[in-house]
Amino acid sequence: MYFFKFIALVLGVIMITLAPIIWTLKERFRTFLLTHILPEEQPFWLWVSGAISVLIVAITWYMEATTKVPFSWIITILVTLALPKSYFMLFQYEKTRKRILPLIKNDVLFFWGYSIFIYVLGVIILSLGMFSL
Description:
Blueprint: H1 2-25, H2 27-37, H3 45-66, H4 72-80, H5 82-91, H6 93-105, H7 107-132
Helix pairs in contact: 1-7, 3-4, 3-5, 5-6
């Protein structure tokens, strides 16, 4: 039970704090994203983060299978969604980067839509971890 509360707390806090950062820093965040997160060449740290995400997903599924926590399946599904993202960023980096760049360059969609979506999802995950797990 504490594992799922911890995962919900970490994900919720990261999402809730990242949304205002994206909205307030705007151009500096976009520049950081394009130079450090999505550079022309695939960075090595993507392989490390891919391995860490596989490990976290494996631990989460193990905890899901061995414990009986209500609504833990929601957190398990959200954590499992990291695998397709890791796959596309690791093995199809060029195609994924080309698809993400128009989203990042669109001011309204990225700064407002993406940050509001992240904030609302973070509040939902944090509420789930605090009140139902």
